Amino acid sequence: MTEARKVPLLNVANILTMARMALVPVFLLSLFAAGGFDTTWRLIAFGIFAVASFTDHIDGTLARKHGLITDFGKIADPIADKALTGSALVGLSILDVLPWWITIVIAVREVGVTLLRFWVIRYGVIPASRGGKAKTLAQVIAIGLFLLPQNDVIAVIAWVIMAAALVLTIVTGIDYVIRAFKLKARAGRAVA
C-alpha cells in the first residue's frame, strides 16, 4: 500500500490547506475595501494574510509530525501558497503599491513550477525544497510589510526583503526545472 492510501485524504493538514485557499477571497475583499488604502482595512487584510500564511507552517508541521503527508497535500499546499501570495501581489500591483514587473516575474515562476510539477507527476512528486520554502517565507514577509500602512522604515525593509525574495524566486525556479528534468530522466532509465 502506498503512503497516500494509508493516510486519509480528509485530515487536519489538508483541511488547513483548504482553509488557506478559502481565505484568499476574504483577504482580497478586505484589501480592496474602502479604496484599498484605508488603514483599518489594510490592517485587517494584513491580519488575514498573516493567519492564512501561518496555516502553511502549521499544516506542513502537522503533516510531517503525524504522518499526514498525502500526494494531494503535496500538490494542494503549494497551490494554496501561490493563490494567497499571487492574489496579494496582484492586489498590491493593482493598487500601485508594487510594480507589475515584480508580480509578473514571481507569477511566471510560480505558474512554471506548478506546470512542471504536473508535467512530471506520473514519474513522481517534486516536494518543496528548502530554497523554495525560503523563497515563500521571504515573499510572505515582504508582502506582509507592503500590506501594512507605510512609513520610511517599513518601506525600506519591505523593499530589501522583496529584493531577496526575487533572487530566491529566480534561483529556485531554475532549481525546480533541473529537478523536474532529472526526475523524468530517472524514470525513463528505470523503464528502459
Name some characteristics of this structure.
single chain, 192 residues, mainly alpha, 2 domains, 7 helices, disordered N terminus
Q: Helical proportion?
A: over 70%
Shape: globular
Q: Supply Rg.
A: 18 Å
Given as residue ranges, the uncertain stretches (5+ residues, pLDDT < 50) are 1-5
Largest sheet: none
Number of strands: 0
Domain module tally = 2
Mean pLDDT: 90
- Distance, first to last CA: 25 Å
Number of helices: 7
Structural class by helix and strand composition: mainly alpha
* Order of helical and strand elements: HHHHHHH
β-sheet strand percentage? under 5%
Description of the structure:
The protein is mostly helical. It has 2 domains: 8-97; 98-186, no CATH class. It contains 7 helices and no strands. The protein has helices at 3-6, 12-32, 39-65, 71-94, 100-119, 130-147, 152-191. The protein is globular, with a radius of gyration of 18 Å.
Give the gist of this structure.
The chain has 192 residues and is mainly alpha-helical. Helices cover 80% and strands 0% of the residues. It has seven helices and no strands.
List the helices and strands and how they pair.
Blueprint: H1 3-6, H2 12-32, H3 39-65, H4 71-94, H5 100-119, H6 130-147, H7 152-191
Helix pairs in contact: 2-3, 2-4, 3-4, 3-6, 4-5, 4-6, 5-7, 6-7
Subcellular location: Membrane
Family: Belongs to the CDP-alcohol phosphatidyltransferase class-I family.
Transmembrane segments: 12-33, 154-178
